[in-house]
Write a structure and sequence with these properties.
The complex is a heterodimer of chains A (about 110) and B (about 475). Helices cover about 30% and strands about 20% of the residues of chain A. Chain A is α/β, with parallel strands linked by helices and about 110 residues long. In chain A, strand 1, helix 1 and strand 2 form a beta-alpha-beta unit. Chain B contains 15 helices and 12 strands. A 5-stranded antiparallel sheet of chain B has the order 2-1-5-4-3. In chain B, strands 7-9-10-12-11 form a 5-stranded mixed sheet, covered by helices on one side. A two-stranded antiparallel sheet of chain B has the order 6-8. In chain B, a hairpin with a 5-residue loop joins strand 1 and strand 2. The chains are: A alpha/beta (about 110), B alpha+beta (about 475). Chains A and B meet through helix 1 of A and helix 10 of B.
């Protein structure tokens, strides 16, 4: 089954890019509106986006592994406890794919 | 002499014509003595000369000459009482002598007073000058006692709550509990109190106020070259630091925000590269331009963020034992394609450099900056030589090129951020002016030094030294 990745990103251009990238990398992108608790295997999150963290909380207690893709370094302190990888924008498709495969245990 | 009597006498001495009054008393006492002791002939008219001299000096030439004539008259009167005989010539000579004394001392007195007024005027100007500066300034003696201080310093001392007595280091030390980094501040003050040769500049912040002050001190030497005391200057730099903070915050914010469009450009570019074959030759040329520009933009953003981190002292080093020759070799190989494309000869000379302790990523950044700069600023047919070796207890790295060089009057600013040499801008050679600023900050963070020698049109030589890894810990 294709792993589902919830994309939590404030900028539309980057959301579009991530959706295309997910498909190319063999993942199924999921928008926040279509995702409830247990619907995603991993999350790509811009952690500095306050509303994004709210979306993450809506997933309930069992939040899937989070890959942070941020404009700020990790030291900025935005990463949520569930994050398993932290990439700085702009990350390459390869880096994103590796992080997501690790997050999904593939 | 009791202090009160002494101070009263000093007040009297400062009044106008006090010397004249004293001299008149002396004159009367002399006449009195002559009459009482029948001593006009014995003492002679010369006994009046001190009083004539003093009156001339204090009250002017006419007063001096009048006193001379009067003294001779009184002398003759006292002499006639005891039967003294004098000729007209003798009287004339004595009058002339005393009149000359009175006039001469008057000239001397006038000159002295003129000189005193001139000195006073210069002192007043100097005082006005140092009072008009922004900096608080004081001069202390060898023991740190204040000899001179200006108005801004007295105002700043009140604002800082410095105690009114004590040596300058003692006064500064007294406010240590109110300074943000009080341990470092205390240590510096103690070091300064003990040092006669150190010249230093430090900043400190008043805790809880946000007010930042910059102090400077340097030894003052006497004409023979000995330690005479210290000059201390103090300036509030709160506004400057606030501007720095705003500028750094702005640069950091803009740089972070640039990552968002950069992510879109890089990401879609990466996707287009996968379909490069379908673009045709023209499309591929366009794609190359976009790729190069994106890389440049990416480097610019990274450099801006790094300089902001450096300014905020947030760069942490992940230190390990490093082989500088290997790092240099890698940087040379990275720069080789660009050098080959330009026809620049690029060589590396390694002469047993010692191992160093440092952050591989950060030192690679330094080396890449220096080597790529050298290639960038050297024209076709030129040469870039990277030499690594040992210099005493340090590892040394020299990057020398035969490029466009840097004019002598610009070399002092070349390590300042955003500064670009006129030789580079004149030829529109791209760059941000951040590479050398970053390199210097990173080298210094490793405990090393970086220096530059250059001659416009002939080339540049950048020398980096890094402390060698001590053998026992290697």
């Amino acid at each position: 089954m294709t792993p589902r990745v919830l994309i939590v990103e404030p900028h539309e251009d980057i959301r579009t890019l991530l959706e295309l990238s997910m498909r190319r990398l063999g993942f199924e992108p999921v928008a926040p509106g279509d995702c409830g608790p247990g619907d995603a295997d991993a999350v790509v999150l811009e952690p500095s986006w306050a509303h994004g963290r709210t979306i993450l909380r809506r997933l309930g207690d069992d939040v899937p592994p989070v890959v942070c893709l941020s404009i700020y370094p990790r030291e900025a302190g935005y990463a949520p406890p569930e994050s398993v990888a932290y990439l700085i924008k702009p990350a390459s498709l390869g880096q994103l794919g590796d992080a997501l495969r690790d997050a999904c245990g593939r | 002499m009791p202090a009160s009597l002494r101070s009263r006498l000093l007040v009297l001495a400062g009044r106008p014509y006090a010397v004249t009054v004293l001299a008149l008393v002396g004159l009367a006492a002399t006449i009195g003595s002559m009459v009482a002791l029948d001593g006009a002939a014995t003492l002679g008219a010369v006994a009046f000369s001190p009083w004539v001299g003093l009156i001339g000096f204090d009250a002017g030439a006419w007063a001096g000459m009048f006193t001379a004539a009067g003294s001779i008259g009184l002398w003759l009167l006292a002499g006639s009482h005891e039967g003294m005989h004098t000729t007209g010539a003798q009287v004339t000579v004595r009058i002339g002598y005393l009149a000359l004394l009175g006039a001469g001392t008057a000239v001397a007195g006038r000159r002295l007073r003129a000189s005193e007024r001139a000195l006073g005027s210069v002192a007043a100007l100097q005082s006005a000058l140092i009072d008009s500066t922004l900096d608080g300034i004081s001069l202390t003696d060898r023991d740190g006692n204040i000899l001179i201080s200006n108005a801004p310093l007295r105002r700043l001392s009140l604002e800082l709550g410095l105690p009114p007595v004590g040596t300058v280091p003692e006064r500064l030390l007294a406010i240590a509990p109110r300074i943000s980094d009080q341990d470092r501040y205390r240590r510096r003050m103690i070091e300064l109190a003990q040092s006669s040769s150190e010249s230093t500049s430090d900043e400190f912040e008043l805790a809880g106020t946000g007010r930042v002050f910059r102090g400077f001190t340097a030894p003052v030497v006497d004409p023979s070259g000995g330690f005479a005391g210290r000059i201390w200057t103090l300036r509030e730099v709160t506004a400057d630091r606030e501007l720095d903070r705003m500028r750094d915050a702005f640069v950091a914010t803009v740089s972070h925000e640039l990552r968002t469009p950069l992510t879109s450009i890089s990401g879609f570019l990466e996707m287009m590269q996968d379909e490069e074959e379908r673009l045709g030759e023209t499309g591929r040329t366009y794609l190359d331009v976009i790729r190069r520009s994106t890389e440049r933009l990416h480097h610019l953003v990274e450099d801006l963020l790094l300089i902001a981190q450096i300014e905020a002292q947030r760069v942490e080093l992940d230190n390990a034992t490093l082989d500088l020759a290997e790092l240099a070799q890698r940087s040379v190989e990275t720069a080789r394609p660009a050098a080959a494309e330009k026809g620049v000869e690029l060589e590396i000379v390694s002469d047993h450099p010692p191992e160093v302790r440092g952050d591989r990523h950060r030192l690679t950044q330094v080396l890449d900056n220096l080597v790529s700069n050298a290639v960038k600023f050297t024209g076709g047919g030129g040469r870039v030589t990277v030499s690594i070796g040992r210099n005493g207890d340090s590892a040394s790295l020299v990057v020398a090129d035969t490029g466009i060089g840097i004019p002598a009057d610009e070399q002092g600013k070349i390590f300042s951020r955003f500064f670009r040499a006129s030789t580079a801008t004149a030829q529109a050679i791209p760059g941000t002016g951040l590479g050398l600023a970053i390199s210097r900050a990173l080298v210094e963070q490793h405990g090393g030094t970086i220096t530059l020698e250059s001659s416009a049109g002939e080339g540049t030589r950048v020398t980096v030294t890094l402390p060698a890894q001590p053998p026992e810990s290697a």
